[in-house]
Structures are given as C-alpha cells and as structure tokens.
Specification:
The chain is built from 11 helices and 21 strands. By secondary structure, the protein is of the alpha+beta class.
Length: 387
C-alpha cells in the first residue's frame, strides 16, 4: 500500500484528506504531520469564528501573485457547496458570501476532521527536512522519520496570531533551489503617520483611495475601522497588499460622503450653518468623529470643509506585522509546479494552499483556494494511484 504524507493540518490539507477518503476505492495509508497541538487551528478563527468559506463570484480578478491558467482551472472546478455537502456540512449564502449554515467555524473543522478517523495524525510535530531517493521520500521530523510515496506540503504561512506556523518550509524549499517569491503581509491593518486614539472603535462607510503621490493605485468602497495605531476594516485590508509591496510612502484618502458630490456637500453644509455649532457636526458624523471635527475644523469655510470630508488624507507609515495579517503574499513560484501542483523537479512532491505564491481578496477567496487545492491534488493523486 502506497503512503501519502501530508505536512500541515489546515484548510487545504483537511480538504485533501476528505477528498482522498471520499473518492478512494480502496483503503489508503495517510499520515498527517502538524506542528500545532490541534488541527484546523487557523481555520477556527476565520471570518471572526464564522468561517467565510467561499464567494459566489470566484474569478482570477480577486487573486494576486503568480496566477495562471492552471490556477484558474483549480479555482473554477471546485464547487464549494457540493463539496461541503458531501462532507456533511450544510452551507448558505449571505449575499455573495458562503458560510456554514451554523455560522460557526467549529462546524467546518468538525466535519472535515471526521475524515481523520482512519488517518495517522501526529500533532506537535515539525518537519525539519525531506529527501527523495529510490522512488520514495524520507521526511525528518522532531518526532521520527517517515517514509512516503507522495509528499504534500500544506503548511500555510505564519500570518495570524493563531497560525503557529513558522517559515521553516519556505526556507527549506529555498535551500533546495526552488524559486521563492519574497513574503509580505496582505489583508492587514495599516499604521499611519498621524493617529487619533480617541477614534478607536469607530466604524464608517465610504470610499477609500490609495495614492502614490498623485497617482491612484487602488480604490475600495466599504467599511473602515479606526484604531489606536491607524486604520483597519475590510476596505483597508483590501488596500494593504499594495502598501506592503511598495517601497514608497503612500497615502489614503477617505471620502466620508461618497454619496454626495463636493458641490452637493457644500450646499448641505451651507444649509446646516443655521444650526448651533454643537449640532452642526454631531448631526453629520459618528459622535467621536464629530467631536474631533468640531475641535479641529470648525473654523473652515463650507468649501474647505466639504473638500476635507471628501478628501481626508492619511499618510501611511506601513502595515502591521504578520501576526495581524490574514494571509501572506509570496511563496513558491507557480513556475515550479505543473497543472496538478506537483513539483517539476521532484516527482510525487505537491505544494498546496498558502505556501504557493497566491493570495486573494477578503470575502472567502483565500479559503476557497485552499479547499480547491486540497480537492484538486487529492483527485490527481488518486488518478495516479489507479495507473
């Protein structure tokens, strides 16, 4: 019986094990090596514990890195709803976002973990090295050595407080001569040059534009969260990848009234000048924001104030650390793997999930890719097992 060793027990590897168990015609010898003390640790925290599994509109437009045709095929050939139903998990769409019907990530991990019942799982076990000789792999770990016919690397990245993941596999592949795209944070809060700690916790809706000088780099419409160190929220997270990759000093302009033109806003402000100064701002903005504007900008003319409300510029210092990031950009170059995500240098070695140079936008895109990778490689291994 041939053995499959999977390094990592996150979203992509759990989907891989489920696919192998669901599709295999005979019993398989599967070993899972996980350096954390539990499986699916990072998955449990996704979507604020609700697990945004996928998005109704999956397309390459929402992914970044070394995207190519094989990645598009993997993304589009994975039916998340059908897959999870086979795993015993009922799902539902909330607008365009796919969630477990229970709205609990624990349900996702429980259903996927059920396929580990007949798998050899070794927790708190870190892979130190692997070698390929005479048609099989030897995996050296902190526990013992393991032999494998197929080796799947699914260690994810160190993004997130709960990942528990180190850069070991990234460094190991680089040492073995693989092309590795440098890592950087993505989907991460931003630190700003000037901060307003008194605004911490305030959420606003609007349009947010990232600038390199006068050049528009990217624009997002949605929600922003003020923090003691700068800016966060989904819209800001979407802009953060460009900040992380840019060596230049960037800025974000906040449009607090994106449903008004500047001329319309001037008219509105002129109409409100008949109100008392105390009401003027408090009837326009969230309370903490209104207090700030009242103290600092009450002296401005209607024209100047309207321009500020439409173009409130914040200079960006940089991103928060990888511990606050949802994902990491960079990883193994897609040129190093074939259409099955198998290494072009070492037969039987597969790399899946966030270890690859692929990262997606907020909205379930990253989890969709992780699950799709596991499903795709599971099918590929089973086809070769039948040859």
């Amino acid at each position: 019986m041939k053995r499959i060793v999977i390094v990592g027990a996150g979203a992509s590897s759990l989907a891989l094990v489920a696919t192998l168990q669901l599709e295999a015609k005979t019993e398989l010898d599967i070993v899972v090596l996980e350096q954390n003390t539990k499986v699916g640790r990072k998955l449990l925290a996704t979507g604020n514990g609700r697990a945004n599994l996928s998005h109704r509109a999956i397309s390459l437009a929402h992914y970044h890195g070394g995207i190519d045709q094989k990645i598009e095929n993997i993304l589009l050939n994975f039916d998340a709803v059908a897959f999870f139903k086979r795993c015993g998990l009922e799902t539902k769409y909330q607008q365009d976002l796919l969630y477990p019907r229970s709205e609990q990530a624990t349900s996702v991990v429980a259903c996927l973990s059920s396929f580990l019942d007949h798998v050899h799982v070794y927790l708190d076990t870190q892979v130190l090295d692997y070698t390929y000789q005479n048609g099989y792999y030897t995996i050296k770990t902190t526990l013992q050595d393991f032999k494998a016919d197929w080796l799947v690397l699914a260690t994810g990245s160190q993004a997130g407080e709960l990942s528990g993941t180190q850069n070991t596999m990234y460094r190991l592949l680089k040492e073995k001569g693989y092309t590795m795209v440098p890592l950087s944070t993505s989907l991460v809060p931003l630190e700003t040059q000037k901060t307003y700690p008194q605004l911490k916790g305030v959420r606003i809706k609007g349009t947010f534009t990232l600038y390199d000088g006068k050049r528009t780099m990217r624009q997002e419409k949605g929600e922003l969260l003020f923090t003691e160190y700068g800016l966060s929220g989904i819209a800001i997270m979407q802009l953060s990848r460009a900040v992380s990759l840019s060596p230049k000093e960037l800025a974000i302009e906040i449009d607090l009234f994106d449903d008004f033109s500047e001329t319309e806003l001037i008219t509105l402000l002129h109409q409100r000048r008949t109100l008392s100064p105390d009401v003027f701002f408090k009837g326009l903005l969230p309370m903490k924001l209104a207090v700030l504007f009242e103290k600092q900008y009450a002296h401005l003319s209607n024209e100047a104030l309207a321009h500020l409300l439409k173009h409130w510029r914040w200079s960006i210092k940089g991103t928060r650390s990888f511990k606050q990031a949802q994902v990491m950009a960079g990883g193994l170059s897609l040129k190093e793997v074939n259409a099955d995500l198998e290494s072009i240098k070492e037969k039987g070695l597969y790399v899946i999930g966030e270890l690859l140079d692929i990262d997606g936008d907020c909205g379930g895109y990253n989890l969709h890719f992780a699950f799709a990778c596991g499903y795709h490689v599971g099918k590929a291994i089973l086809q070769k097992e039948l040859l």
